[in-house]
Amino acid sequence: MRILYLNFDRGIAVLGDKGASVHVREFTAAAAQLGHEVLLACARLGSGNVAPPGEILELALGSVPGRSASPAAACGLDTRNQRRPLIDQELSKLVYDEWVDDHLAAELAARAYRPHLIYERHALFSTAGVRVAARLGCPRILEVNAPLAEEQKRFRGLSLESVAQRMEVESFRGAAAIVAVSEQVRSYIRGMSGVAPERIHVLPNGVDVERFACSRGREEVRKRLGYGAGDSAIGFIGSFKPWHGTSFLLEVFEDLAAVRPGARLFAVGDGPERGKLCARVGGSAFRDRVSLPGRAPHAEIPSWVAAADIMVAPYQPMDNFYFSPLKVLEALAGGRPVVAPRLGQLVELIEHGRTGLLYTPGDAAACRDAIISLIDDPAMRRGMGVAARCAAAGQSWQNIVRRVVEIAEAAPARSAA
User: Fold this and answer.
1) Which domain holds residue 346?
2) Of 103, 7, 105, 109, residue with least CA distance to 54
3) Is 100 found in the same domain as 232?
4) How far apart are CA 106 and CA 116, in angstroms?
5) Alpha-carbon distance 195 to 214, whole Å?
């Protein structure tokens, strides 16, 4: 099958480090492994990781003087009193959406390329995929990973809220079928657009089982960090953002380190909270037992998982936890028990007492006690690791791609109307 993968989100560099970038690469690689021909059309290629197999077409729109007024006028917007630079960022996304479908159509025509399926990652201020599918007359499956308009408004600010919501609804309704990564995302789509429930399929994120099942690199990483044979390594991998709970994790570690002298903590990643965390670690009595190595290419993440004895996903309490955390699946596939709060999909991914331990969200003492119980019982830890690896085996990216193809074959193409 020829699959045209659309990633029109300029915040997601295909070769970047963030989870969304990993998702794009892993899905593309799994499709190629299953014998599908994938053309990945993206807004931004980026750098830092190995490109997935298949052809990649970067559709990068540079500065186009004078065009920002065009989408604003078309939407009937008076932007004179809007906040800058927020409004400029949003208008640039409207310009890109206006430009990219014609440009992609020209590129496809030059290649005489006709896909059997369009698979698109949902992006804010983006309806070009609807128009591309209408031109090509093939099914468009829309992957929705988050309530983007709501998320943007809550965390970063959203000036053209009504336009973003209207375009989101248009994108949802224009899909032959929708893949939502969690039940919470599915509920958002239903409430926002009224799309029939049978057209929305919940598919959590996947994992490269074979890559993470190999424990190569464990001793090398532990030696680099200065760990001894009897040390218990607690690992975190992810973004240093407030809701990911890195400050909470350090608080927990400071408490348990006082009673478990062999405990060590490493936190791999980057983000807005990292500077503050580094300063806090530097002033801590346990600074020699905490490592903050920064970002790591995704190819190195299996070695970091292998170096840990326990992985922690310390997400902070949220009313609508809609995530499908890649790093949790990768930790499970790496045979490591995961300690995490009882939130959203985490309850489904982690079987309490079998593949990890769950605690009440925000309860530092409960999180600490869960980690200590795993430190103190190596046999339980190893047993959970074996069960975790088995549980992750069914969530391979290949299985995700197979399910998407099944959904596409059962879904008719929908017109732009």
Assistant:
1) 209-393
2) 7
3) no
4) 18
5) 42
CA distance 331 to 142: 27
Residue 85: pLDDT band with limits 50, 70, 90: confident
Kindly report the average pLDDT of the chain as a whole number.
92
What number of CA atoms fall less than 13 Å from residue 211's CA on the CB side? Answer: 18
| CB within 8 Å of 75: residues ≥ 6 apart | 94, 160, 163
Written as one string, the DSSP assignment of 61-81 is ----TT-THHHHHHTT---TT
The 3-state DSSP class for residue 183 equals helix
**Rg of the chain, C-alpha, whole Å:** 22
Nearest C-alpha neighbor of 323 from the set 350, 343, 301, 352: 343
Same domain, 199 and 219: no
Closest CA to 23 of 219, 208, 287: 208
Residues 276 and 128 in one domain: no
User: Are 143 and 244 in a shared domain?
Assistant: no
Q: Are residues 180 and 292 in the same domain?
A: no
pTM confidence score: 0.90
Q: Which amino acid is it at 54?
A: G
Question: What is the signed CA dihedral for 378, 383, 386, 390, rounded to 10 degrees?
Answer: -150
Tell whether 40 and 171 lie within a shared domain.
yes
- Helix (H) and strand (E) counts in the chain: 17, 13
Query: SS3 of 311, please?
Result: strand
Q: How many domains does the chain have?
A: 2
Strands 2-7 vs 338-341: parallel, antiparallel or unpaired: unpaired
What φ, ψ does residue 341 adopt, rounded to 5°?
A: -80, 160
